[in-house]
Amino acid sequence: xxxxxxxxxxxxxxxxxxxxxxxxxxxxxxxxxxxxxxxxxxxxxxxxxxxxxxxxxxxxxxxxxxxxxxxxxxxxxxxxxxxxxxxxxxxxxxxxxxxxxxxxxxxxxxxxxxxxxx
Length: 118
Hints:
Order of helices and strands: HHEEEEEEE
Largest sheet: 4 strands, antiparallel
Strand content: 35-45%
Low-confidence stretches: 1-16
Number of strands: 7
Shape: elongated
Mean pLDDT: 81
């Protein structure tokens, strides 16, 4: 038991200098190794259109142990969105003003990048 606690401390110290994507990968490995619980959580952020013609809202979080992301358009025109997860999954969606995209699901420990045009 003491060895396990020591090992956990060493791992925590080694991870403290890593980037967020490194920590996300570490979290994925830990969940797969011992069934870590992912609490429900959510957040949102506005994504301004380059044209100055409105914005998109990105909503993301964890629900029921599953990671998700979706978008709502407040852009004046059609918006195209690409979401790329660290594991290589890629989702492409297109929405008009006032529409909500389909929800994209993945492991809650994976980071993603969103690229968009509106």
